[in-house]
Write a structure and sequence with these properties.
This protein has a domain at about 40-135: Orthogonal Bundle (Arc Repressor Mutant, subunit A). The protein is extended and about 70 Å long. It has a two-stranded antiparallel ribbon with strand order 1-2. The protein is mainly α and about 150 residues long. It has six helices and two strands; from the N terminus they run ααααββαα. Helix content is about 60%, strand content about 5%.
Amino acid sequence: MLSNVRMQTFLPLPKYFLCSLTTHAARKIIAYYNKSLEPLGLTAQQMMALGVLWREENISLGVFAERAGIGKAAAVTMIARLEAMGMVVRESHPQDRRLNTLKLTDKARSLAPQVADRVAKLTDAIESTIGHESLKILIEGLTAIKNLDL
């Protein structure tokens, strides 16, 4: 027979609920990007991957994985998807034929201004909500957290 008595564990409340806040904020941002990028045929993850190559092209898969902050297996999968979409091609490295470098296609390059517009709209919305200085502090804080050696 089941008891009607609820068991509850009392734990001290965290000071800031960082895990919950960052998870909810990240989900909201990713949902915005997925919705706004859908007409372009991109997801938020694909946009972030292309962003690495928009900033620095002709890099190896290993360098791409490092810059994107993902493992090599995830990088292989992402690049394969982007290749299938006609966004990226692999070319032999000019000095070392064993290596491939990643190059953007014209199709990917043509999407950059539209993606930049969507990124700017989100940034503007956040900045108008929390203010320029708070956004600057938020970015500095998130960058510092990202770089923590935990």
